[in-house]
């Protein structure tokens, strides 16, 4: 029974985490390459995922989480209530609400001290993302995000170097996101995977990705589509590079897991404010409303995860 819970938990967590978080790294990639067949995009992303997963497994002695689960041990006995977190996340994902999978999944297995550290790191990450994106787009908005500059890129049929740059930036961002979020996906499995567990889990994840790519990211993709110019390949490239650099520099500062969702929403928020401030001040009010709405959604995940942990603690007492 315990082994069944272990594998069901992994599959639920993998589907829910990838389904909820795919917009963070591949949302702009899918949007700006909407005319490219999904199999090509899937093969590209799958190759990077396979290499990143293998690197962690091989060089970290079977630990595909890159040591992010060192202080979050697998419980000696898994019970049915451990499935409440991925099930809740799965339901929220189907509703199209972007929540922090880190809080939702890892909080069930973490001590209060670790949860507090995850929240602090995530809050700082959100603030850093807002400020970084705002300052960056204050500088580049007129040159890269104005209607005139966008038209020039479109007239040139999105020059090959921008297409190349976007695929490179996506590869960089995707690998950095995976390093952060493998912990959420693999928290139900042993901290050191055998070769068979490694291959089996990889095949399961690739199958889940194929389904999501065929459906172009699902309902949560709407969050990316609502933002200014995200369908433009040049804009998508800049977003991906900015996000990837924050995960690389800040996310790898220590091995404490963090919410990549909060970081992503922060980047979109800072970008949206800067673009409208520089190019269309009349839309600033609407931008603030949209940003507040997105921020409220990600906080739902934190509130729900705390509630799920509370419920599990009550169940344990009976």
Concise overview:
This is Phosphate/sulfate permease. The protein is mainly alpha-helical and 318 residues long.
Structure commentary:
- The protein is an all-alpha fold and 318 residues long.
- The protein has one domain (2-317).
- The protein has 12 helices and no strands.
- The longest helix has 34 residues, at 284-317.
- The protein is globular, with a radius of gyration of 19 Å.
- The chain starts with a helix and ends with a helix.
- This is Phosphate/sulfate permease.
- The chain crosses the membrane at residues 40-60, 81-106, 118-140, 161-179, 194-213, 233-250, 256-274, 295-315.
Task: State the main characteristics.
318 residues
Element order, helices and strands? HHHHHHHHHHHH
Strand content: under 5%
Structural class: mainly alpha
Cα Rg = 19 Å
Helix fraction?
A: over 70%
The major beta sheet can be summarized as:
none
| Quantity of strands, as a count | 0
Keywords: Membrane, Transmembrane, Transmembrane helix
Protein name: Phosphate/sulfate permease
Organism: Winogradskyella psychrotolerans RS-3
List the SSEs and their pairings.
Elements: H1 2-32, H2 38-59, H3 84-94, H4 101-106, H5 112-144, H6 147-155, H7 160-186, H8 195-214, H9 222-225, H10 233-251, H11 260-279, H12 284-317
Keywords: Membrane, Transmembrane, Transmembrane helix
Transmembrane segments: 40-60, 81-106, 118-140, 161-179, 194-213, 233-250, 256-274, 295-315
Organism: Winogradskyella psychrotolerans RS-3
């Amino acid at each position: 029974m315990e082994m069944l819970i272990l594998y069901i938990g992994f599959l639920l967590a993998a589907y829910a985490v990838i389904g909820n978080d795919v917009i963070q790294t591949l949302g702009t990639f899918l949007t700006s390459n909407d005319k490219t067949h999904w199999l090509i995009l899937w093969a590209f992303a799958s190759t990077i995922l396979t290499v990143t997963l293998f690197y962690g497994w091989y060089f970290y002695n079977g630990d595909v989480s890159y040591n992010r689960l060192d202080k979050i041990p697998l419980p000696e006995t898994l019970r049915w209530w451990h499935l409440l977190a991925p099930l809740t996340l799965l339901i929220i994902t189907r509703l199209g609400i972007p929540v922090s999978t880190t809080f939702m999944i890892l909080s069930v297995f973490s001590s209060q001290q670790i949860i507090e550290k995850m929240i602090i790191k995530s809050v700082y990450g959100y603030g850093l993302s807002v400020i970084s994106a705002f300052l960056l787009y204050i500088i580049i908005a007129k040159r890269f995000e104005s209607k005139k500059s966008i038209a020039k890129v479109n007239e040139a049929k999105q020059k090959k170097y921008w297409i190349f740059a976007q695929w490179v930036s996506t590869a960089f961002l995707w690998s950095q996101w995976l390093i952060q979020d493998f912990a959420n996906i693999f928290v139900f499995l042993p901290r050191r995977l055998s070769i068979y567990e490694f291959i089996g889990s990889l095949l399961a994840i690739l199958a889940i990705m194929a389904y999501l790519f065929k459906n172009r990211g699902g309902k949560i993709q709407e969050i990316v589509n609502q933002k200014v110019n995200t369908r433009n390949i040049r804009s998508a490239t800049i977003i991906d590079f900015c996000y990837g650099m924050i995960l690389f520099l800040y996310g790898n500062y220590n091995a404490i897991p963090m919410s990549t969702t909060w970081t992503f929403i922060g980047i979109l928020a800072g970008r949206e404010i800067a673009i409208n401030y520089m190019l269309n001040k009349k839309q600033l009010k609407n931008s603030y409303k949209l940003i507040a709405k997105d921020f409220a959604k990600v906080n739902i995940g934190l509130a729900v995860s705390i509630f799920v942990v509370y419920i599990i603690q009550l169940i344990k007492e009976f």
